Amino acid sequence: MKKNRVGPKYNTKNGRKGRRKKERSIEEMRKSYLIKAIRKITLYWEPRKAAIKRQSIRGGSFQCEICKKVKQKGSRKVDHIHPIVPTSGWDSWDGYIERALCKEENWQILCTICHQNKSNIENDKRRNNKSNDEAFLFEI
Known about the structure:
There is one protein chain. By secondary structure, this protein is α+β, with helices and mostly antiparallel strands. The chain has one domain. The chain is 45% helix and 12% strand. The protein has helices at 26-42, 46-55, 93-100, 112-139, and strands at 56-57, 61-63, 70-71, 76-80, 107-111.
């Protein structure tokens, strides 16, 4: 006889291991779907391709725009200089699309390490802004 396991790591409906899926609203699902679609469109955006070509060196190498080291193609990340979602948080669909499908000057080619460092800094700023907003709401 099976034990009825409970807890955050078990799905209580069938007792199988695995986290329960978080229930999401239609708005959250729609936003997630649209963000994925827009991100996919940017892969074929001509200014992005031009930025890649600008930083390419013969043999598939490129120069990271932050650390200036020459790296192999496999460690290349194409990054927006100005984040698609500002560090102040989500503003609007129009702003998101405008920043996603931007001019060549807003694209930079980074190595994996520099891209991860830049992303971590931006995410920390977003979290701090979000917690400051929440703290402000509790003060009111």
